[in-house]
Structure formats: structure tokens, C-alpha cells
Amino acid sequence: MADFGINVDPGEVGLDARRLRRIDTHFQRYVDDGRLAGWQVMVSRRGKVAHLSSYGLADKEAGRPVETDTLWRIYSMTKPITSIAAMMLWEEGAFELSDPVSRWLPEFSQPRVYVGGSAVRPITVPAIEPIRVWHLLTHTAGLTYGFHRVHVTDEIYRLRGFELGASDFTDLAACVRGWAELPLAFQPGAEWNYSVATDVLGRLVEVVSGQTLEAFFNERILGPLGMKDTMFWCPEDRQHRLAALYSADASRTRTIRSEVLGKGIMNPPPWLSGGGGLVSTTRDYTRFTWMLLNGGELEGVRLLSPRTLRYMTRNHLPGGADLTAFGRPLFAETRYDGVGFGLGFAVVLDPVAYRTLSTAGEYHWGGMASTSFWVDPAEEMTVVFMTQLLPSNTYPLRSQLRQLVYQSLVD
């Protein structure tokens, strides 16, 4: 495998080079008309990089172009790494998926569930089911995010200082204690709701392993996989490679620099977010996807067994439901008909219902700044897309990328 760079003729792995160039032509328009500052995309098949392209600027104000080693805030693409960390401990017998998390995080020993009232005076009842490890991995614990703005519990989170971050809390343990004090949006296991569950899972990793999440990642995942530029903050000697963070203006026709939020990654964080704290490169995250595609192993380093990974990437939603049926409506550039959820990944169940060219069994996730990745075991393919635009539902980048990648497969 290449350390990073195109190392196979696309035709040798069933991809049409001319059709692959349609990816570049399409997304170049986003930069040329001002909707994106810059982007980078990687398409690999059978462990070979068949397409790697960049366009535009990593930092418009500085005139700095996107390079192969540009650093990107990957936000929620951190979640699959945290899920892998938890399942590594599960493979060692540290816990069962059905175990109540209160065994290690006693603050969750008596959760309460919102049933009415305002954010200031909520009415709650005791949870009839404990929050289990499985609930954290599947986002069915009843936790939420303050930035959703679709339910009273979201407002409760914001009132406690939990929106895009939690600046008033000194470490992950304090954050988790704060979340445990807030009412759940629903009874554990009753619905799917994208949430801080993976951050709580990161704290579980810390308690069970006896290491900080950063130390566990470095020692057990990032170091062994050679992900040398993936970290919880960008040190000064690498900040010249860090892409600037942008958001769309009200008309969604140009980008505005998000200076305050963008600078957050430049200093050690007050708490380690397993749900959205990492910065990475396309090269590093490609290596992570190769490990996934290879059934938990890369270049002689095995993190998980193939059976564990196959189990993680099955749909775990009750009754085989998809996210549209079992989840709460949230912002997204596409609906989630035909897409289920496993242990840390969304999983395509029915491409026809999904209305997007894809393969049943393909699994994926993305980040708040419009980054995304997917792994397609049937086609032996992985794709990583990097940019820095908030929020991720501004444009249909992910669905457009899928159709452009899959139309290039010709074998």
C-alpha cells in the first residue's frame, strides 16, 4: 500500500479514469463560484489509491492552497475511532454490550426522562431501562445535542452550556457528570437520536482502560496505524498546514471565515471529545478506512477481529428499522430512508430506498464541517472527502460524491 498518493492505474481496479475526473470537474465549481474554499478527495479500491485530487485554498485569506498534508477538523468522524476503541476493550472482555454504564459511570445510576414542561421547569420520570453500553454505541441512550434545536431537552442542554462544546467544564469526566444530571429525551432504547453518547463512550474507555482517551488513541490506534497527524489539537509547528474553518452566508453563495470556532483546535482542549475532537489528514483517515476494509487489520497491525467489525457494521436498530423510521428528524442533506445504524456507523440497508447510488452493507459517517467517508466491503472501496464548511447540510456534497464515485466503477 502507498503511504499516500496514487499508486495504481484506475483501470486496473475497475475504475474509469475519465469518469473519475467528473468528481473534480463537479466540485471545482463549488470553489470557483465561492461556495467552498477548497477540498480534497481520495478514492481507493482493493487497498490502492486510484484517485486523489485537491482544489482550491486551505486558507483563502492567506492564499494557501490545499496540499496532500493539509490538516482538517474532522469533528464527528472522530466517533468511529472512539467506537473502535470501545470495541477493542469489549474484545478483551472488559464489558458486555448489555452492561449498564453506571457500573463504571455511577452518575448514570438513576437517569430521568423528560415527559413534559418547559426547559426551565421540566417534568421527568425515572428511566425504566438503564443506559447500557449498546445504547451509547447506537445513539439510543436518550441523550442529545444542544445544537439540534428540535426538542425541549436540546434547550435544556444549551441552558447548561452544552451547545457546540462545553467550555465551562474542565475535563471529560466533568462533562459526563453534567450530562448525567440532565433529563433524557426518551426512554433508553426507545428511539435513535444523534447525541453526546459517543463522548460518554469515550469516558467509558478512559475508566475501563485507566488511560486518558488521548493516550489510548495514541497507544492503541493512531500510533499502530501510522496516523501521525491525527490528534486532539494542532500544535504550533503544524498550524501552517491547518485549513481555515468557514461557514456559509445567509444566501449560501459564499463562505465566511469562522475565526473563533476555528481557533479552538489550536490549543489543548479543556476536555477530550470522542464525539468530535480530532484533527486529521486525508492520508491518515484513509489508513483508518483501509483498516476497516481489511477486517480490522492494516500492514500486520490488527485492532479488531473481522467478525467484530462485521458485527459493528450490521444494522442494530430494533426490528431492522431504518433511521427515518426509528430516528428523530435532524438536519441532514439527505433523508435516511434505507439507512440503519450499527455500532458507531450508519449502514446502507437499501440503496433504492436511500435514493442514492450505493451498495447494501456500505457504512459511513461524516463531520460537522462537511467532511465524510465511507467503506464499501462489497466493492472493496473506501472514499474520504475533506473540506471545512459549516454546517454539513449546506449543500448535498455527500450524495453528489456518491453518485460521482459509483458511476466511475465499470467492472
Hey, roughly how much beta strand do the residues contain? Answer: 15-25%
The tally of beta strands, per DSSP, is 17
User: Mean pLDDT score, rounded?
Assistant: 95
Helix content: 25-40%
Oligomer: single chain
Q: What's the main sheet like?
A: 8 strands, antiparallel
Q: Sum up the overall morphology in one term.
A: globular
Count the DSSP helices: 13
Low-confidence sequence ranges: none
What structural category do the secondary elements indicate?
alpha+beta
In N-to-C order, the SSE pattern is: HEEEEHEEHHHHHEEHEHEEHHEEHEEEEH
Task: Please compute the radius of gyration using only Cα atoms.
Answer: 20 Å
Query: Main sheet: which strands, in order across?
Result: 3-2-1-16-15-14-13-12
- Terminal-residue CA separation: 22 Å
Briefly, what is this?
This protein has 411 residues and is α+β, with helices and mostly antiparallel strands. The protein contains 13 helices and 17 strands. Strand 14 and strand 15 form a beta hairpin.
Structure description:
The protein is α+β, with helices and mostly antiparallel strands and 411 residues long. 28% of the residues lie in helices and 17% in strands. It has 13 helices and 17 strands. It has helices at residues 17-32, 79-91, 133-138, 152-159, 172-180, 197-209, 213-222, 259-263, 282-293, 306-312, 323-326, 351-354, 397-406; strands spanning 38-45, 48-59, 64-65, 72-73, 112-117, 122-126, 246-248, 255-257, 279-280, 297-298, 301-302, 339-341, 346-348, 363-366, 372-376, 381-386, 389-390. The strands form five sheets. Strands 3-2-1-16-15-14-13-12 form an eight-stranded antiparallel β-sheet, with helices on both faces. A three-stranded mixed β-sheet has the order 8-7-17, with no helix packed on it. α2 runs parallel beside α6 (197-209). 50% of the residues are buried.
